[in-house]
């Protein structure tokens, strides 16, 4: 049996990312802090962008960059005020989504460490 090449493959590829990001956006849709930040009424396109980004980051297909170019995530988040309250709301939602997937270690820990770090680094406000 060959070892999985990367985390993307090890956790089950696209269907796993589809479930995690889908579950995350179910939480965003009813979060009083996060929902108002999303400019579009339809969260579907935002869900797809985040799913494609994560798949690419973890070693899956490069569809995100084919469609969107370089991620430049801090720049793309600059229009939205992201302080500690928004960061914590985001982490609460993504935590639910990741936990429900019951990924094996070390993949769960690796994914979570990255998401927590990335959420901190996306802050652009102290309040
Ligand atoms: C886009 C909020 C953290 C990845 C967005 C958008 C909002 C948002 C409002 C615009 C929705 C759209 O695409 O139309 C937040 C908040 C965060 C956060 C409040 C709290 C810390 C993160 C993190 C990541 C991430 C940690 C990556 C690990 C993305 C991606 C997009 C996006 C890939 C789409 C970028 C594009 O336009 O191609 N986010 N985000 N976000 N976010 Fe976040």
List the helices and strands and how they pair.
Blueprint (H helix, E strand, L loop, with lengths): L6 H4 L3 H16 L14 H14 L5 H6 L4 H5 L6 H18 L5 H15 L6
The structure holds protoporphyrin IX containing FE.
Give the N-terminus to C-terminus distance in angstroms.
51 Å
How many helical elements?
Answer: 7
Proportion of helical residues = 55-70%
For the CA atoms, what is the radius of gyration? 15 Å
Ligands present:
protoporphyrin IX containing FE
What would the average pLDDT be, to the nearest integer?
A: 97
Report the CATH topology name.
Globin-like
Multimerization status: single chain
Give me some keywords for this one.
single chain, 127 residues, mainly alpha, Globin-like, 0% strand, globular, binds protoporphyrin IX containing FE
Can you characterise this structure?
The chain is built from seven helices and no strands. With 127 residues, the protein is an all-alpha fold. It has a single domain, classed as Orthogonal Bundle (Globin-like). α2 (14-29) crosses α3 (44-57) and α2 packs across α6. The protein is globular, with a radius of gyration of 15 Å. The N and C termini lie far apart (51 Å). The mean pLDDT is 97. The structure holds protoporphyrin IX containing FE. Protoporphyrin IX containing FE binds at residues 34, 37-38, 40, 46, 49-50, 53, 68, 73, 76-77, 80, 82, 86-87, 90, 115, 118-119, 122.
């Amino acid at each position: 049996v060959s070892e999985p090449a990367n985390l993307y493959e090890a956790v089950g590829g696209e269907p796993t990312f589809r479930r995690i990001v889908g579950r995350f956006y179910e939480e965003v849709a009813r979060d009083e802090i996060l929902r108002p930040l999303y400019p579009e009424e339809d969260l579907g396109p935002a869900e797809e962008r985040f799913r494609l980004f994560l798949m690419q980051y973890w070693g899956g297909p490069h569809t995100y960059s084919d469609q969107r170019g370089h991620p430049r995530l801090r720049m793309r988040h600059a229009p939205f005020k992201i302080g500690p309250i928004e960061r914590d709301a985001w982490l609460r939602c993504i935590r639910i989504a990741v936990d429900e997937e019951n990924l094996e270690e070390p993949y769960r820990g690796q994914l979570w460490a990255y998401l927590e770090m990335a959420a901190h680094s996306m802050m652009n406000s102290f309040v």
